[in-house]
Amino acid sequence: MNILQVIPQLEAGGAERTTLEVAQAIVAAGGRALVASEGGRLEAELAAVGGELVRLPMGSKNPWTVWRNAECLARIVRAEHIDIIHARSRAPAWSAKWAADRTGAHFVTTYHGTYNGKTGLKRWYNAIMARGELVIANSQFIAAHIRTQHPFAADRVRIIPRGVDLDRFDPQVIAPERVAELAACWGLQWPSGRLVALFPARLTGWKGQRETLAALGRLKAEGADLPLTLLVGDAQGRDGYLAELETLIRQHDLAPDVRILGHCSDMPAAFALADIALAPSVEPEAFGRTAAEAGAMHVPVIAADHGGAREVVLPGQTGWRVEPGNPAALAGAIREAISMTQAQRSEMGLQAARHIRTQFSTRALQAATLRVYEEALSSQS
Asked: Which GO terms describe its molecular function (predicted)?
């Protein structure tokens, strides 16, 4: 099968990582895996798995550009004998749908987020993600959301949870030298004897960095021994938000306790540095990829109690779930985590790894996605 995936960029993120994983599976099955995108830092990884980049301005929401992209995609479908166009974001999905209608290619979508819309126009725009012949939901939470927001698509939803690369996110394959190198790059002494909390997420308000700093400020005021908290992720141009976080660090006197470190290309090594991971998003995560990766690395997770995190984090077994947007509740979970013995945290991490390995593997995602492609190709639509 020849598959064309469309996605705005190939930067760090769950949708981008899944694009590469599916490309790898297509090539391994003897097909061709094309990706229409503006590109980004994951281009080399796409090429390494045998994928082919088609560089187009897929991130643009300009109606004229979206229309031009549809024309370009239609030409690619005809020239490369594409069987299925798989859309992973809204603006590219409009281009992909028009191209599929013109060429007879099958059209599949993956619903990667909640895409909430308060106006009728926004809901209409979002609905393109539910108009695939088959609509992949990356969690039970997203499947329920699609059925509520787009009842017409209910019988076309196929649930394929996000996967974790269990070969890559395996503490047994992370050499101590690799962890030490990352720590040195970040200017950290390792091992330091101090508890480390890793917050892996791009710097944007809905991920919960503000609430985390407020929670740490509460604990600091109580006289607690704080974990060294590492904020790892791109600001992606949000200079104002970055400045706000730096101000909050100063206001709460957290300069010795919090580091803002930017993008990391070796997340397995980053998790190997950590004793606990933080995923306290204010808005619900569609799945909760970083929480799953942390679990695979035997790291207990403190996550917000909504969205896909409810499927990834089992309270009291693999981590903690706290009320979203509540710094007091988050402080309570951090307090409990730091009061545990290392043996207790290790046992919780072991349970986390068992849960992730049985429920959320990349291989399972790849196999299930290929089955969806086969189902689409066998249909008469």
From this structure: glycosyltransferase activity
CA distance 333 to 347: 17
How far apart are the C-alpha atoms of 264 and 262, rounded to whole Å? 7
- The residue ranges of every structural domain in the chain are 2-163+362-378, 171-359
Q: How far is the C-alpha of 160 from the C-alpha of 149, rounded, in Å?
A: 19
Instruction: Check: CB of residue 288 under 8 Å from CB of residue 259.
Output: no
- Where does 2-163+362-378 sit in CATH, by number? 3.40.50.2000
Opening angle at CA 348, ends 143 and 177, nearest 5:
100
Which residue blocks in 223-266 are alpha helix, DSSP H? Answer: 239-251
DSSP category for residue 18: H
User: Which residues have a Cβ under 8 Å from the Cβ of 19 and sit 6 or more positions away?
Assistant: 5, 7, 10, 35, 37, 46, 88
Separation CA 372–CA 376 (nearest Å): 6
Question: Whole-model pTM?
Answer: 0.85
CATH fold, domain 171-359, is Rossmann fold (3.40.50)
Count Cβ atoms within 10 A of the Cβ of residue 86 and give its class: 0-12 exposed, 13-18 middle, 19 or more buried: buried
The whole-angstrom separation of Cα 190 and Cα 120 is 53
From first CA to last CA, the distance across the chain in angstroms is: 17
Our measurement of the distance from residue 316's CA atom to the centroid of its chain's CA atoms, rounded to an integer in Å, reads: 24
Locate all alpha helices (DSSP H) within 207-341, ordered by sequence.
Answer: 209-222, 239-251, 267-273, 289-296, 309-312, 327-339
Residue 288's pLDDT band (boundaries 50, 70, 90)? confident
Residue type, 260: I
User: Which tens digit of pLDDT belongs to each residue from 82-132?
Assistant: 999 999 999 999 999 999 999 999 999 999 888 877 788 888 888 999 999
